[in-house]
Amino acid sequence: MSDAVVIIGAGQAGAQLAMSLRQGRFSGPIVLIGDEPHLPYQRPPLSKKFLSERKPPDTLFLRPENFWRDQGVTLILGTPVAEVDHARRRIDLIDGRQMDFATLVFATGTSARAIPVSGVGLAGVYSLRGIDDALRLRRGLDAAARIVIVGGGYIGLEVASVIRSEGRHVTIVEAQERILKRVTGPAVASFYDRLHRDRDVEFLLGAKLIAIEGDERVSAVRLSDDRRLPADLVIVATGARANDDLAAASGIRCNDGIVVDEFARTDIPGIYAIGDCSRFPSARYHCRVRLESVQNAIDQAKAAAASIVGLPQPYDPVPWFWSDQYDSKLQIAGLADGYDSDEAIGDAGSARFSIEYRKSGRLIAVDAVNDARAHMMSRRRIAEESAADSAAGGASFPG
Length: 399
Fold this sequence. Notes:
The protein has 9 helices and 26 strands. The protein has helices at 12-23, 49-53, 65-70, 131-142, 154-165, 186-197, 245-249, 294-308, 372-392; strands spanning 5-8, 30-34, 73-77, 81-85, 90-93, 98-100, 103-106, 110-112, 125-126, 146-150, 169-174, 202-205, 209-214, 218-223, 228-230, 233-236, 240-242, 258-259, 271-273, 278-282, 287-289, 320-325, 328-334, 341-345, 353-359, 362-369. The strands form 7 sheets. A 5-stranded parallel sheet has the order 3-2-1-7-19. A 5-stranded parallel sheet has the order 9-16-10-11-12, with helices on one face. Strands 22-23-26-25-24 form a 5-stranded antiparallel sheet. Helix 1 packs parallel to helix 8 (294-308). The model has no long low-confidence stretch (mean pLDDT 94).
């Protein structure tokens, strides 16, 4: 299959790429390789409805198995790639099989960021990145009363909302002085802090975890101030790292993600990277960005497909994200990094408001709490203002 497009990664980005190639009338072989045994599926519900509603895994599948067969997409699941030899245009699978390619696409996503403390391998310590993680966590939660979540980001807070809705005790240990420090501003963080505290979630802020204790199974966590928190179950939600090791080992340029251009191309001809694992240039934000979102997975996959079939269009989105916690929905448009002013639209103490972030007078991001209209309008406004800014001056992309 020397004319094949081989996609490493069978998540949202890889699946969308295969579909977009067929929609773009690519008629050659397409091979979609995944290290998990499951059909391509959506990940956002794992920390939300899938965890709370106990649905079977197939409810998350993007398409049934016969769809891929009808589209002429070969699925190789539960089989990681061991090595990429781009000079010979060949990959080695972990089971010893070899496969030639004309075009190779990395859609390898992310994995849970490891924490350098003892006890992370004990029974009862979980992370949440895939279906099997969610199924194991669900079984563990059913037998647990006291849960400690390490990390006050989106995943930790979403899981906390599920756990508290079931009446279990939750303590969130966060090393920063507030929750959501890396992803949103103080006003939104304060709103979600109150939302969780009103439901009796306990926060330990500015608290550093130094050990997870137990014999064969977790029994407690220990903090740097010598506090010891009893725990039946610990969830590590300290963020994710790009799965770029395979690409880096093959000599492809990486920098906390696989570095690509605006057409999703790496520095090796015929090799692309898309989705959570890729770092691409944004003329809107004058930097390279790596986005962990469904929007990016889908839209960058479409851009890569267009490039592969010879109809390249530069990819420079207005990113958007969302988070569901209890009955509250946070919708984010744009990237607020480096903002120098912010403004509340509506009462930031109420259940419905938004925060606009500006840099040098230009709107760069909006956080909308329970306000879908503000979210949709903000995406258009950010696009218009950033387009005008980009037209006025060039962008540089360090890193």
